[in-house]
Write a structure and sequence with these properties.
The protein is mainly beta. It is built from 1 helix and 11 strands, in the order βββββββββαββ.
């Protein structure tokens, strides 16, 4: 049974930092494309960052230079380090996994493997 469980969210002041974790089980984690999405109330779910099985990363322009995605293939865990947080970063953050050879937000978005999310609330 595939499981993805996010943690590490919470309230933080603008300019602060958080590190999100996504612990996984039930699939060959090291071979999967992994990604982080976020969804604010009334907004579409958007891709934040992704990392392929080789460790190559992509960060959305809105977070580039502030957020860093990484993975630990020995612990089957995905991370998102978030620095210089802004109120507009407030959202529920989800991790996703996809087995496709191509690691894209579009493929991650339609995957059946999503976590339940962790809330990030940035106050000004």
């Amino acid at each position: 049974q595939v499981r993805l469980v996010e943690s590490g969210g919470g309230p933080v002041q603008a300019g602060g930092s958080l590190r999100l974790s996504c612990t996984t089980s039930g699939f060959t984690y090291s071979k999967y494309c992994m990604g982080w999405f976020r969804q604010a109330p009334g907004k579409r779910r958007e891709g934040v960052a992704r990392i392929n099985s080789a460790g190559n990363t992509y960060h959305a322009e809105s977070v580039r230079g502030r957020f860093t995605i990484s993975r630990d293939n020995t612990e089957n865990t995905l991370f998102l380090k978030m620095n210089s947080l802004k109120p507009e970063d407030s959202a529920v953050y989800y991790c996703a996994a996809d087995s496709s050879e191509y690691c894209t937000f579009d493929l991650l978005r339609v995957t059946q493997y999503f976590g339940q999310g962790t809330q990030v609330a940035v106050s000004s």
